[in-house]
Amino acid sequence: MKKMNIRSVLPKPNTSLSAKSHKKYPYLLRGLKVSRSNEVWATDITYIPMQAGFMYLTVVMDWYSRYVLSWRISNSMDKRFCLEALDEAWKWGQPEIFNSDQGAQFTSLEFTSELLNRGIKISMDGKGRALDNVFVERLWWSVKYEHIYLRAYENGFRFTQRT
């Protein structure tokens, strides 16, 4: 009999669920030629499969340099770990434009207020348009295929090398 694991039973999580009551912002990066650091920062969340469920990883990245300014990992997709990553990223400066998807973590009043209070323009990907945030999506591909999928994660602390 084939061994069942949680990933074969549970669907992959949707990390971009929006909240209908949250304000959505237009996508500001179409046709924009980003020419320096701190012009545009971007963020996103991806899931990391575990033996029993998922962990969630978020980053704040500078679009020009592709430098990961900060990151956090969590066992839930609440906004707290996204706000912590944003708070850590401030040590690198601040962008003119901040881009994210329309997920509830990034459209929350707490998250958008952090940006608006600093005079930062908010840009949000179109619904279902993962390529609007192509540089973070490319990072997720690298992280997953060059690290995560090569290991069998038991939980948020331990993994075993796949053979």
Automatic annotation (TrEMBL):
Coiled coil: none annotated. GO terms for molecular function: nucleic acid binding. SUPFAM superfamilies: Ribonuclease H-like (SSF53098). Pfam families: rve (PF00665). InterPro entries: Integrase_cat-core, RNaseH-like_sf, RNaseH_sf, Transposase_IS3/IS150/IS904. It comes from the Bacteria. GO terms for biological process: DNA integration. Residues 22-163 form the Integrase catalytic domain. Transmembrane segments: none annotated. PANTHER family: TRANSPOSASE INSF FOR INSERTION SEQUENCE IS3B-RELATED, TRANSPOSASE INSO FOR INSERTION SEQUENCE ELEMENT IS911B-RELATED. This is Integrase. It comes from Saprospira grandis (strain Lewin). The lineage of its organism: Bacteria, Pseudomonadati, Bacteroidota, Saprospiria, Saprospirales.
